[in-house]
Amino acid sequence: MLVLSNARLFLENLIKYGILVDPIQVISLFLKDPYSWPAMCLVIVSNVFILAALYIERKLSVGFVSERVGFLLHFFNLSMILCFPVAVVLMVNSMTPVGGVFALAVYTILFLKLYSYKDVNKWCREIRHAKARTLARSQSFPMAHKANGDAVQAHVTYPGNLKHRDLYYFVFAPTLCYELSFPRSPRIRKRFLLRRLFEMLFFIQLLVGLIQQWMVPTIQNSRKPFKDMNYSRLIERLLKLAVPNHLIWLMFFYWFFHSSMNFVAELMQFGDREFYRDWWNSETVTYFWQNWNIPVHKWCIRHFYKPILKRGTSKWAAQTAVFLASAFFHEYLVSVPLKMFRPWAFMGMISQVPLAWFVGRFLRGNYGNAAVWISLIIGQPIAVLMYVHDYYILNYEETPAAGMA
């Protein structure tokens, strides 16, 4: 029934709109001017912050600067990682929203990685006098037999890890938590690599095609109901958008967390392949957020949640702080590229706190699992429609009025 009903919707879409897929149009989402590549230039400039973090750590390792001065230098470097791309995106007119999202996503990942790099090297300095040869933390990556091969682990001692090669391996590795010794796979499996590459190419084309053919017309048809505040039509548009949005989200999840990250890990012989767990079986909202993005979850636990607990904060307050930080970065990745500040992504993440409490308190088993899935299926298209509405009003309706004035 699911296949038949969606096949009918697909045919109805083709009959009504024709074929809307245009691969050339995708290029315009990244480039306004073929001779101006601001997003790529931003990514290249990020090397300045990477090298700054390395040289700060080198000075700290030999005692050239104190821990306090090193903290201030790292604070300034990390702050610039978040602020510099924002200034460029807002000031450069040739920066497209999609290009802005790409650049800010790279800088956000770099911020999390270099924060972990700073913390781990600080821990090494603290235990160096105890002659600890390896870093052992509760959230360290285990040396274990993986489904994708045997992980082997070499031993590196501090400060021998403060090298360009070591840091850049970490920057490109599919993890956010730094280690002196990452688990490594013994070889690159070419068949596995080619399968992941085929999946990456296939799913990215399928995603672009579905967005152009299925989502864009639905979103465009939602402008008039939003403008007229026709609530019945708005609900109908929301429900119609929920199906393709969720299907595309699931495909994106597989493309990014399974195909792409495994491809990078295999290419770099990175041994730890736990990028996600069985989030689809979540009976609570908390379980979903703990298992759908393991690299981010490990970073939050290791560098944010546990340090807050050590300061005497309650578990509930620490969990709320994690959601607040996550809400900030969600809004950061949406509002800045769109060049409009609306709190929809922030509010969507914050709403997970009372939702998690309600589902954990009153729902169990399949009822909890259904509540998690409903929040995913309905919540995302609501945010999409809100941002599209505000972006359309800001860019396409206010301009004529301003010109007349």
UniProtKB/TrEMBL annotation:
Record keyword Endoplasmic reticulum present: yes
Reaction catalysis annotation: 1,2-di-(9Z-octadecenoyl)-glycerol + (9Z)-octadecenoate + H(+) = 1,2,3-tri-(9Z-octadecenoyl)-glycerol + H2O; 2,3-di-(9Z)-octadecenoyl-sn-glycerol + (9Z)-octadecenoyl-CoA = 1,2,3-tri-(9Z-octadecenoyl)-glycerol + CoA; 1-(9Z-octadecenoyl)-glycerol + (9Z)-octadecenoyl-CoA = 1,2-di-(9Z-octadecenoyl)-glycerol + CoA; 1,2-di-(9Z-octadecenoyl)-sn-glycerol + hexadecanoyl-CoA = 1,2-di-(9Z)-octadecenoyl-3-hexadecanoyl-sn-glycerol + CoA
Main location: endoplasmic reticulum
EC number(s) stated in the UniProt entry for this protein: 2.3.1.20, 2.3.1.76
Residue intervals passing through the bilayer: 35-57, 69-92, 98-115, 197-216, 316-338, 344-363, 370-388
Pathway this chain belongs to: Lipid metabolism; glycerolipid metabolism
Membrane topology label: Multi-pass membrane protein
Nucleus as UniProt keyword: no
Keyword field: Acyltransferase, Endoplasmic reticulum, Membrane, Transferase, Transmembrane, Transmembrane helix
One GO MF term attached to the UniProt entry: acyltransferase activity
The protein's enzyme class: transferase
Location within or outside the cell: Endoplasmic reticulum membrane
Family membership: Belongs to the membrane-bound acyltransferase family. Sterol o-acyltransferase subfamily.
Subunit architecture: Homodimer or homotetramer; both forms have similar enzymatic activities.
Protein name: Diacylglycerol O-acyltransferase 1
Lineage: Eukaryota, Metazoa, Chordata, Craniata, Vertebrata
